[in-house]
Amino acid sequence: xxxxxINKIVAAVLLVALLVIGISxxxxxxxxxxxxxKPGYVIEVEQVLTxxxxxxxxxxxxxxxxxxxxxxxxxxxxxxxxxxxCHSIVKGGKNNIGPALxxxxxxxxxxxxxxxxxxALVAYGKEWNFEELNGFxxxxxKWIKGTKMAYAGLRKEADRASVIKYLNKNSDNxxxxx
Length: 178
What we know:
By secondary structure, the protein is mostly helical. Helices cover 51% and strands 0% of the residues. The protein starts with a helix and ends in a 9-residue tail after the last helix.
């Protein structure tokens, strides 16, 4: 192979490289896309807030008397066994992973003196009544944001009512049912 043949091959390779680079530059000029100053999408927050407010309003409008009629103490005792892994229910019982729940109905939320509650529970400032317990037992982390309780919650209304009745029964002065 003489040098003229080698020069033709090298020239062909260089010509192809120049064509590829030239076509890419030409296409970026023809198909110019202006980049936004801030990348991303604007998310409408108002729509999300109105839905969450509507769900909270629905949860607050629960007829607690009708709900409490669904439950019974004996099934509440069985369901409470899930809770017994972290909570004590006996009179004078000690705090475990969670606080002792004897006398919980009617007690101030975050009111056990020798238990270290999350800041969210201490700052909540309400009492454990039937409505609060119902809302909390649906999904604790949603009802009181920032709580340390990592329980998924009880979805069935009858289960929640039964547990609340069982908690109310385990008290020195059980509150009258609504």
